[in-house]
């Protein structure tokens, strides 16, 4: 599956989750076009239950691509600057 198709699938999952206090990013080797074994996904969240729900949906819907999901609160991301350091790309909704 191409990056564009993964984006479409993630957008579909996000829209169906009805959670507005989340941001989803892709990062890692999958974005660079080099060899990859999994899809690295970052979830930035403000609501723990919403994050758990969408994480479960992503794992279920993209299981054949071995999603590796990192979850951070908005505060943790600011502290770690994970998006900048990992060159993560936001999934546009």
UniProtKB/TrEMBL annotation:
Keywords, comma-separated and alphabetical: Transferase
Domain Polymerase nucleotidyl transferase: 9-89
Iron keyword on record: no
Family matches, as InterPro entries: NT_sf, Polymerase_NTP_transf_dom
One GO MF term attached to the UniProt entry: nucleotidyltransferase activity
This protein's record includes keyword rRNA-binding: no
Name of protein: Nucleotidyltransferase domain-containing protein
